[in-house]
Design a protein that fits this description.
By secondary structure, the chain is of the alpha+beta class. Among the domains are: 54-189 and 318-350, f41 fragment of flagellin, N-terminal domain (Up-down Bundle); 194-279, no CATH class. Helices cover 54% and strands 17% of the residues. It has a 5-stranded antiparallel sheet with strand order 6-13-8-9-10. α1 packs antiparallel against α7, α3 (106-127) packs antiparallel against α5 (284-295) and α5 runs antiparallel to α6. The longest helix is centred in the C-terminal third of the chain and has 61 residues, at 302-362. It is rod-shaped and about 140 Å long. The two termini are 31 Å apart. Keywords: Bacterial flagellum, Cell projection, Cilium, Flagellum, Secreted.
């Protein structure tokens, strides 16, 4: 097989070599101008694909950061609203204690009742707080409308019971603001487990100051009635009206039965009844309404004053539970805010690691690139010199 070396072939090879060197120089110039090692995906397809995946993860971290900022704003506003609500309830408690003073006149109680109504309206306004973006804090996921509204003197909850879970770091979720039903509506009465009340028709001077479980015995969860049958004598009736116990009462003594303990002051009259059982739920607005109504009761008779004191004592217990609910809700929000701070640290650590890896994949090593640029420049000059010399070569020159 014969191989022929022609002038055309040598020219083509020289031109191809120069163009290749020039293309390499242009690529190096783009790298030096941008500071990027990967000018296009063809430079390193595997590294480019990896870098795109890291960019996507960094974008997701930015979105998680936005999520965290949004929920942090809402939780901060919730904290402010609950702090103000707690102060209002503390004022309600102070007014209830003040109102229990027999020296207050009817006009004084009327003034206190008016202040209580004002506090109720302030609480309603706080319960309908927004996050600054047109969304209501305490409506759950139904936060497009005001969660609380007045209807015939009662307050209705229009939101839902769902508490959003918001992702603020990879695999890390925090809870959004609490639904208003959990803060303002479903508040346990009494001591949170046991509650008691005086019958409306009582004629004596006995005031129920508290009811709780007695640690020395178990309570079966039923409701019972303490019915006084004579001076100091009482029967214990179960929910069906059957007598399950009896005893005698001296003022200042606790009445203990069936795992329950009842505390009273004053002297009951025959026929007076006090019911004790499992605590129910009452919204904070109704609690304030009951307290306001108690201040407007007719106290011209001994029985009327005693009924008012029983209602005031009941309201005091309910206000205390409402205050505890505010504190618990603030603690829950504080825990979520702490989790957001921890999530921020996790996002920052992940972002630093990813950016470092991206830098290794994309960022140009200037010293290496400049050395390669000079080397390719020298190679291009050599190729151009060879091509120039080759242009002057001819077989005709050899035979002249």
């Amino acid at each position: 097989m014969n191989n022929r070396i022609s002038s055309s072939m040598m020219y083509d090879q020289s031109v191809f070599l120069m163009l290749a060197k020039q293309s390499k120089l242009n690529h190096l110039e783009r790298q030096l101008a941008t500071g990027q090692k990967l000018v296009s995906a063809k430079d390193d397809p595997v590294a480019s694909g990896t870098a795109v995946g890291m960019d996507r993860i960094l974008a997701e971290l930015d979105q998680l950061g936005s999520n965290a900022a949004n929920v942090q704003n809402r939780l901060g506003l919730q904290e402010n609203a609950l702090a103000q609500a707690g102060e209002l309830l503390q004022r309600v408690s102070d007014l209830a204690i003040q109102s229990n003073n027999a020296a207050l006149s009817a006009e004084d109680r009327k003034s206190v009742s008016a202040e209580l109504r004002s506090i109720r309206e302030s609480l309603l306004s706080l319960a309908n707080s927004t996050d600054g973006n047109g969304r209501f804090l305490f409506g759950g996921t139904a936060d497009g409308v005001a969660p609380f509204s007045a209807n015939n003197g009662s307050i209705l909850y229009n939101g839902d019971q769902t508490q959003r879970q918001v992702e603020v770091a990879p695999g890390s979720f925090v809870q959004d603001a609490l639904p208003g039903s959990e803060i303002f509506m479903r508040i346990r009465t009494g001591d949170g487990t046991i509650d008691g009340s005086a019958a409306a028709g009582n004629t004596g001077q006995a005031v129920l100051t508290g009811a709780s479980r007695d640690g020395s015995a178990s309570w079966n969860g039923d409701s019972y009635t303490v019915r006084f049958t004579g001076p100091g004598a009482y029967d214990i009736l179960d929910g069906g009206g059957a007598t399950v116990g009896s005893g005698t009462y001296a003022e200042g003594d606790d009445i203990v039965f069936q795992g329950l303990r009842v505390r009273m002051t004053g002297v009951p009259a025959a026929g007076d009844e006090f019911t004790v059982g499992q605590a129910g739920n009452r919204d904070v607005f109704s609690t304030i309404d009951r307290l306001s109504q108690a201040l407007q009761m007719d106290t011209s008779t001994l029985a009327g004053r005693t009924a008012q004191q029983n209602l005031l004592q009941s309201s005091l217990r309910d206000v205390a539970r409402a205050s505890e609910k505010m504190i618990d809700s603030r603690a829950s929000g504080g825990a979520q805010l702490s989790a957001i701070d921890n999530a921020a640290s996790l996002r920052e650590a992940n972002a630093i690691t990813l950016k470092d890896s991206l830098s290794q994949l994309r960022d140009l090593d200037y010293a290496e690139a400049i050395g390669q640029y000079k080397l390719e420049g020298a190679a291009l000059q050599a190729a151009q010199t060879v091509f120039t010399q080759m242009q002057s070569m001819s077989l005709f020159n050899m035979i002249r």
